[in-house]
Design goal:
single chain; mainly alpha; 434 Repressor (Amino-terminal Domain); two-stranded antiparallel ribbon; 10 helices
Length: 164
């Protein structure tokens, strides 16, 4: 659902001065004029504001509705939120950052070549989405008909030394 449909479904006009847009803007910590411009397509919403708008509307207007390029993955029926994507074998965002020696979500986002806001939206203690960048980084190889398995990228470089 877009902002215009949301406002009209609540009895508003979705025009500048609409009380529904004004109350949503207050909850999203932005101006009503900003929401109006986003609703009309005159302004692109930032990732952070998209998250605040989704929260303010009770997810009636989702982040993928507002920014499918950041929060959605292509599907045959349209866009679905990244959170609905298939998850990788159990590795949380926190565990992934620790495994890679990264200090924050910004570093992880840069490594994965993803927007920082998208990585920040992933819950700390839940499995990360099975995006191609994540799978490649973890060394997961998909074989037809087989479930993906985690592989140690350093397995071939480890040398054991036998005691004499």
């Amino acid at each position: 659902m877009n902002l215009t449909d949301y406002a009209t479904s609540k009895g508003g006009t979705a025009k500048l001065g609409c009380p529904i847009l004004a109350s949503t803007a207050t909850a999203a910590k932005c101006s009503a004029a900003t929401l109006y411009m986003i609703a009309r397509g005159h302004k692109q919403v930032s990732a952070r504001l998209a998250v605040r708008i989704a929260t303010a509307t009770g997810n009636k207007v989702t982040t993928s509705d507002l920014r499918p390029d950041l929060f959605g993955v292509a599907a045959t029926t349209g866009f679905v939120p990244v959170a609905d994507a298939v998850l990788v074998a159990p590795i949380t965002k926190r565990a992934l950052r620790e495994k890679l020696g990264l200090g924050n979500d910004g570093h992880l986002a840069k490594l994965l070549k993803l927007p920082v806001a998208q990585v920040q939206a992933w819950p700390e203690e839940q499995d990360v989405p099975a995006l191609s960048q994540v799978l490649q980084l973890l060394g997961v190889r998909e074989e037809p008909g087989a479930a993906p398995a985690l592989q140690d990228p350093d397995a071939g470089r480890i040398v054991t030394v036998e005691a004499a």
